[in-house]
Write a structure and sequence with these properties.
Number of helices of chain A: 14
Radius of gyration of chain B: 25 Å
Strand content of chain B: 5-15%
Order of helices and strands of chain B: HEHEHEHHHHEEHHEHHHEHEEEHHEHEHH
Helix content of chain A: over 70%
Oligomer: heterodimer
Largest sheet of chain B: 6 strands, mixed
Number of strands of chain A: 2
Largest sheet of chain A: 2 strands, antiparallel
Distance between the termini of chain A: 39 Å
Distance between the termini of chain B: 79 Å
Strand order of the largest sheet of chain A: 1-2
Number of strands of chain B: 12
Shape of chain B: globular
Helix content of chain B: 40-55%
Shape of chain A: globular
Strand content of chain A: under 5%
Number of helices of chain B: 18
Strand order of the largest sheet of chain B: 2-1-3-10-4-11
Chain lengths: ~325, ~450
């Protein structure tokens, strides 16, 4: 805009567009340069607070974490000990004790990476289709379905602990409806065989609202005439889903899958609050392991940072693969 | 235009002022000194404050005590304080471990000169020795920057013992035991009798009659109960032979198999959901009457009192030895669990030293015991201890006429490298979860330890 204005001024007139009152119609190059500089400074001053916040709370921790991944530090001593790539090699097998813990956590994380996106999609898609198909109470139900997303937090995780407890809601309901055999004797979170299921269910519960919202938005953009034409041609519900809805909503599905993978890789507070990584490490995911390395026992923030960056690279790789596959399908 | 240009300047000014506000505040000048103290024990706050008031009766020094729990939150708080140079004057630490790590990191002062003969005499020799770092400890700490102690000096002291204690303590709810017809006038004398009692209580109240412990941390079950029971059954030599390099009595030896079988007898007696309970949660459950027995330590008693339990309703005893045990009169030695150090950044080191002297004085230690219901590390005239609980504890631990189940050992009993100790902990506790069998664990751990020692050369 400023450049356009300058160009018009140089041409010798405003040709129908009035220049701001403060800018004379004809100015010397020196004054024009001064004016442009002032504009630049004003612009920078406007964005400066945002840039300052980003540099302090975004770029600095990132750089700090990256540097820390090449050092050994317990968070207490004033100095770091630079170790090059040792933290990475130790984690990946060079130091058996740490490597074994990390590999155990990797298996837990793989289960989460596979199940969380799948379950989120499997639950949120039908709910979004149902929500799209009804006319009454749609707004109310949309708000209701979105509640878990805005209420998810530490307090809710504690509430889930009570739900899954030995005498919790889940076991009580199962016993109440005559399915006591399915009740978990140790509580869902108290047995290494079932604890991970509980953690995954809670994470999926927090992701489903977003999935519904994204699918719902996607469904709104699909031309209804397409569905009507398919119905006229005798297509059933399954055929409509397979040949129309699923392909058209593939980008949304890919996005939800990426969000699910990201959550499986990053979410450490759900296992932390629900099980503290137990029983017997059954719910210690890689992000939980990074937390334990940083703050439990003898803290080693170098290992924790290195593991964090490995997780970041894994997340980026999985996201790229997912999006590439999605594009290929398209 | 001038006005619009001023807006971002104003915004920046506000932001800068805000950030400056975060960086520190000038405190009003005053002659009064506030001695800041951080602890990780909520139950110690009242006692530490009371001793501060006794120590500085004129009120010119105020001891402000802040508790940060749980332990990982305390660690994070100290880490943050170390980076921002915002540490307290007096810092509590887990004795004989964390205090040395803090000293190695430059957080705690060297108290060797301060801890002179006069002060040392206030403690038992074993307590004073426990917080004195030895050359073996320094050499054994390795080169890992996260754990090394190589910058410390042998025979130096970096913190003063505050609270002693030990684990391997069973607390039973007398009311629940009596309701099930189990005698509460004396503790069970053998492991078998204890198991029979627990079975009776559990049968009477299947939902709330079990044994509870913070098995979310498997080390709790292993070190607090399985290991003392094993030591009693096997005797010191065979216990060492199970995990030490010689492997004279490996995990699948008959004696060791017996300990695993005895351990397995507890499997049906644990409270449901015990494997997802932290230490505090387990104690809370017991205090709420949802378990009849609680596995803990001397430090559990003040927590239970804080949770509203009546001490007189507790039957407290050490887990008894199984029949056929080599040591039937075993006792656990208490050792310093919490110690007090002075930070290198303290602005009031002299006042902090005076406070430490008060903590270790006979009057201070008595106040600590009677207020916190915890065992003080400093010697106290028994007549000054009014807490009936602590009197009861004194008859259980540190008994001079008994065989010590946790003596200081001169040789390493675990392989120096590898994950064998953690594997042992996990596998033994998995027996209680019904995830494996004593025989499978014995065979696995025999192989694991053999391989670990072979790898160690």
């Amino acid at each position: 805009m400023t450049r356009e204005l300058d160009r018009m001024i140089v041409r010798g007139g405003n040709r129908g567009i009035s220049a701001p009152a403060a800018v004379p119609a004809v100015v010397s190059p020196r004054r024009r340069s001064l004016w442009r500089r002032r504009e630049h400074v004003t612009g920078w001053l406007y964005v400066a607070p945002a840039i300052a916040v980003f540099l302090v709370f975004g770029a600095y921790p990132l750089g700090y974490g990256l540097a820390l991944s090449f050092a050994q530090w317990n968070g207490l001593s004033p100095d770091w000990t630079w170790v090059g790539f040792d933290n990475y090699t130790d984690i990946l097998g060079g130091r058996p004790i740490v490597a074994k813990q990390v590999w155990d956590a990797t298996w837990v994380t793989i289960v989460m990476i596979v199940s969380i996106p799948l379950l989120t999609i499997a639950v949120s898609f039908p709910l979004a289709v149902m929500l799209n198909g009804i006319k009454r109470l749609r707004g109310f139900l949309r708000t209701l379905y979105f509640l878990p997303y805005v209420t998810a937090g530490v307090a809710v995780l504690y509430a889930w602990r009570y739900v899954f407890d030995v005498d919790g809601v889940l076991n009580s309901v199962l016993r109440g409806i005559g399915l006591g055999a399915l009740a978990a004797d140790q509580g869902l979170l108290g047995s290494p065989d079932t604890a991970l299921i509980g953690v995954i269910v809670v994470i999926v519960w927090t992701l489903v609202p977003l999935g519904i919202l994204l699918y719902f938005t996607g469904l709104q953009t699909i031309d209804e005439s397409l569905i009507e034409a398919a119905l006229v041609d005798g297509a059933g519900r399954w055929r409509i889903f397979r040949s129309i809805l699923a392909p058209l909503l593939a980008p949304t599905t890919a996005l939800i899958a990426v969000l699910g993978v990201q959550n499986a890789l990053q979410n450490f507070f759900a296992p932390l609050i629900l099980t503290n990584g137990g029983p017997f490490g059954a719910t210690t995911s890689l992000s939980m392991k990074a937390y334990q390395l940083a703050f439990a026992g003898f803290p080693n923030l170098g290992y924790a940072s290195a593991l964090g960056w490995i997780l970041f690279l894994a997340g980026v790789t999985l996201a790229i693969v997912n999006l590439r596959l999605g594009r290929k399908r398209d | 235009m001038k006005r619009t240009a001023l807006l971002p300047v104003a915004a920046l000014t506000v932001l800068a002022t805000g950030l400056a506000g975060c960086s520190g505040q000038a405190s009003p000048s005053s002659d009064k000194v506030t001695l800041e103290t951080w602890t990780f024990k909520q139950s110690h706050v009242e006692a530490l404050t009371a001793i501060g008031e006794q120590c500085f009766p004129d009120g010119d020094v105020t001891v402000k005590v802040e508790a940060v729990t749980p332990d990982d939150a305390f660690t994070t708080k100290v880490q943050a304080g170390a980076q921002t140079k915002d540490l307290p004057d007096v810092l509590m630490a887990h004795a004989a471990g964390e205090d040395w790590l803090f000293a190695q990191s430059g957080i705690l002062m060297d108290l060797t000169d301060f801890f002179d003969e006069k002060l040392r005499d206030r403690f038992t020799e074993s307590s004073a020795t426990a917080v004195t770092i030895s050359q073996e400890k320094i050499d054994g700490s390795g080169d890992d920057p996260a754990t090394t102690l190589k910058d410390l000096e042998a025979d130096h002291i970096y913190s003063m013992p505050l609270a002693n204690g030990t684990a391997s303590l069973i607390m039973a709810n007398k009311t629940m035991l009596e309701a099930a017809g189990v005698a509460t006038d004396k503790a069970p004398e053998t492991w078998e009798q204890w198991v029979a009692d627990m079975t009776k209580v559990k049968a009477h109240d299947p939902d709330n009659g079990g044994l509870v412990a913070g098995l979310q941390v498997p080390q709790v079950g292993y070190y607090w109960l399985f290991q003392p029971m094993s030591t009693a059954y096997l005797g010191i030599d065979d216990f060492i032979g199970r995990t030490a390099e010689a492997q004279t009595t490996p995990w699948n030896s008959p004696g060791s198999m017996e300990t695993l079988e005895r351990w397995n007898e507890l499997t049906p007696l644990w409270t449901d959901g015990v494997f997802n309970l932290g230490i505090d949660q387990a104690d809370q459950l017991f205090a709420q009457g949802k378990a009849a027995y609680d596995l803990g330590g001397t430090f559990t008693v003040p927590f239970l009192v804080q949770q509203g339990m009546d001490v007189d309703d507790l039957l407290i005893f050490q887990a008894p030895a199984p029949e056929g045990a080599k040591i039937t009169d075993g006792t656990m030695l208490t050792s310093p669990l919490v110690s007090a150090g002075i930070t290198t950044t303290s602005k009031h080191p002299e006042e902090a030293k005076k406070y430490l002297e008060c903590l270790s004085s006979e009057e201070g230690a008595a106040t600590f015991m009677n207020t916190a219901n915890d065992l003080a590390s400093a010697k106290v005239d028994p007549s000054k201890v009014t807490s009936s609980t602590l009197k009861a504890l004194a008859s259980i631990f540190d008994r001079e006429d008994a065989t010590v189940l946790n003596p200081p050992l001169s040789i390493p009993i675990e392989p120096p490298t590898g994950d064998a100790p953690n594997t042992a902990v996990t596998e033994v506790i998995k027996i209680s979860a019904g995830e494996t069998t004593p025989q499978a664990v014995a065979d696995l751990l025999t192989q694991v330890y053999r391989d670990a020692w072979a790898a160690a050369g």
